[in-house]
Amino acid sequence: MLINKPFIKLFKTRSKYYMYDVNKNTILNIDNKQYTFLKNCLEFNDNCFETKEVNRLYKDGFLSSNKVKNIVHPAEELLPYYLNNNVQMLILQVTQQCNFRCEYCVYSGAYLNRSHSNKKMDISTALKGIDFIINHSSNVETINIGFYGGEPLLEFNFIKKCIEYAEEKSDCKKIIFSMTTNASLLTDEIVEFLYKHSVLLTISLDGPKEIHNSHRKLALNNNGSFDKVINNIVRIEKKFPEYIKTILFNTVIDTENDFDCIDKFFLSYDTVKNIALRSTFISNNYKKDDIVINEKRQDYYSKQSYELFKIFYHLIKEKSTENCSRIAIEEYNEVAKLSKKLVPQEILPERAHPSGPCIPGTHRLFMNADGFFYPCERVSESSNLMQIGHIDTGFDIDKVKKILNIGKVNENACKNCWAIRLCGICASLIDSTEKEFSEKRKEEFCKKFKLSLEEKLKNYCFLKEFGHDFENNVEMNLNEVIK
């Protein structure tokens, strides 16, 4: 019997063959004959003849050729309702000024979207923003108000007024406050207030002294900031021992540096080894000059991959990961998150959308110093595409809808993409200085993302082959690696 080309993705680990069925959102372990037949079917023919190798798969409902016919985000019809009732977080751009000058900062001049200035938010704008999230979160039990800079603690009295106002106006709604800081201004008075009001504090720390200081320098004299930051952390640990347990490090990694040097620091340096860690690479998004992969960066990635292998070994052998890399463990967490997305489905609907976009304005609503709304703090403030409203006029529904339906950019590619259910597309990744989102950037992102996703699928299957239980260890807590 003649059959249509199935909508699947084939891949293999060192010892086994796999098929990801897009309609079923399911991974199947298949044999070599099935793999070879399906590979030939995908590569050489639009249609294939059914054989005994795949007959059982068809009978079980797999290998459908069905694809999405219309790229439309499922939240589109209810978008006004979500924006009126489901805003979860508001991030206030307290100031655009900073007492550091970090070379890779989005305000450094190396990026298209921002530069340092003396502009700061007026308190009346901030209070209107707090009223806005309270009035637009009726379906949300807990809201988050974040403080963002520049360096937000340059305006500590402003932050105090915002927190006290929000607590007064909360109307019994639970509010979580959060802030990212370079930690240089954390006096006892400030820390006591933050601790009293349970402000979740993220401190920027990039590694050992020589690495941290190579990027994070004081604006006043261009000196490194490591000693000042570490001394403040030591003082918090001594005077507020319960608060230190809630602090998180944000580490921005320059892969020009040695992986082992950074990794050893966070594993063994007394002041930091018991504090939770989240790491990211220097952002290439909106950067004026692309980051070039050279020999040093290749060496960094090779060492990180080796540390990930060691983590896999410990997990398979059910050994403690206490001495494993705290940076590489985040790669495992990405695989664990993927495992939660692999929930079996029946068939792709006629109307669907790649799974990446959040609902802009509800997840991490960012309000800049002038009161303009953006989907989050990571997007370009100079992009007209990303400006989705203002505190005085509310949301621009049409702009929010356009970002929500980002899959409409070259939508035929999305309809035919095997990663449609597991996609990580975000509008900021394909934003441009033009009036429309960039098809070229989308193509580049999709190519890189699918390569990355395939590696995650292989790692997921590799761990399953050795009996790793994702259900009972879905995501490794950041603190579990440092027990």
List keywords for this structure.
single chain; alpha/beta; TIM Barrel; 2 domains; 10-stranded mixed beta sheet; 19 strands
Walkthrough of the structure:
- This protein has a ten-stranded mixed sheet with strand order 14-13-11-10-9-7-16-17-18-19.
- The chain contains 15 helices and 19 strands.
- It folds into two domains: 2-66, no CATH class; 72-483, Aldolase class I (TIM Barrel, Alpha-Beta Barrel), CATH 3.20.20.70.
- The radius of gyration is 24 Å and the shape is globular.
- With 483 residues, the protein is of the alpha/beta class.
- The protein has helices at 32-44, 52-59, 79-85, 123-135, 156-169, 188-196, 209-215, 226-239, 241-244, 259-268, 295-316, 329-341, 397-404, 411-415, 439-465; strands spanning 2-4, 8-12, 17-21, 26-30, 47-49, 70-71, 89-93, 100-102, 142-148, 174-181, 200-204, 216-218, 248-253, 276-281, 351-352, 365-367, 372-374, 389-390, 394-395.
Give the arrangement of secondary structure elements:
Elements: E1 2-4, E2 8-12, E3 17-21, E4 26-30, H1 32-44, E5 47-49, H2 52-59, E6 70-71, H3 79-85, E7 89-93, E8 100-102, H4 123-135, E9 142-148, H5 156-169, E10 174-181, H6 188-196, E11 200-204, H7 209-215, E12 216-218, H8 226-239, H9 241-244, E13 248-253, H10 259-268, E14 276-281, H11 295-316, H12 329-341, E15 351-352, E16 365-367, E17 372-374, E18 389-390, E19 394-395, H13 397-404, H14 411-415, H15 439-465
Parallel strand pairs: 6-15, 7-9, 7-16, 9-10, 10-11, 11-13, 13-14
Antiparallel strand pairs: 1-5, 2-3, 3-4, 8-12, 16-17, 17-18, 18-19
Helix pairs in contact: 4-5, 12-15
